[in-house]
């Protein structure tokens, strides 16, 4: 048990930590469920090398995505080296209408509109700081901050050949032709199956956001290419939020920044690198 985690629980008045359980999560943080002498259970996240603003950004994001119909854990403490969250528990069975509730909640989040693309601060994408500088033009925002940015990253530069890099530049240049105009909507930013939970009532819960104002379609790619989420989720979402024809193909396109991020973080390279090359060639 780290001093920071134990100190955080003590500062919250929860008493001594008496049990610790590692939780399955992302690749950046160590996430644990801690039980204290007071009988309280909390979820604590830590990183090996604390990064300024890392957990404050996550805490602000959790507050931003609350109140749309999914559960969001309360932030109990956010410091540079530790984040303490309400424990939503585990092993809960999803309610019969779980996927419909998730679809409507996500659509309501995308109904929160902004005037510009970006966010009030840059946030971390994994270990990398992601540019969220405000922009008026959505195509320029995505071209610069979500596509071309990977050309400067060392692992992407090493594993993408000259043809791949040309294709990436071409895709960025063609976004205005490939993606119809969409206003800036509030996005979760990283809602994949690992950041989707079931609360004690069987309803959906969302964690670990990377919030910003962007294209709604750019928020849905994980549910399309990784999640195999059921048709009733998509039907419920589309009842509340219209998607223009061709949205399925665009979700493949808008997954490219995520695939490039996986390469830069050395995730499943044998599978992801060939997949990324094929996708770049497809849309170039």
What report would you give on this structure?
The protein has 284 residues and is an alpha+beta fold. 41% of the residues lie in helices and 16% in strands. The protein contains 12 helices and 11 strands. The strands form 4 sheets. Strands 1-2-3-5-4 form a 5-stranded antiparallel β-sheet. Strand 6 and strand 7 (128-130) form a beta hairpin. Helix 4 (138-147) runs antiparallel to helix 6 (162-178) and helix 6 crosses helix 12 (269-283). The model has no long low-confidence stretch (mean pLDDT 93).
Explain briefly what this protein structure is.
The protein is an alpha+beta fold and 284 residues long.
Total of helices: 12
User: Average pLDDT across residues?
Assistant: 93
CATH class of the largest domain: Alpha Beta
The share of residues in extended strands comes to 15-25%
> Which stretches are low in confidence, meaning pLDDT under 50 for 5 or more residues running?
none
Structural class: alpha+beta
Beta strands, count: 11
Shape: globular
Strand order of the largest sheet: 1-2-3-5-4
State the end-to-end distance: 49 Å
Pick out its properties.
single chain, 284 residues, alpha+beta, Phosphorylase Kinase, domain 1, Aminoglycoside 3'-phosphotransferase, Chain: A, domain 2, 2 domains, five-stranded antiparallel sheet, 12 helices, 16% strand, globular
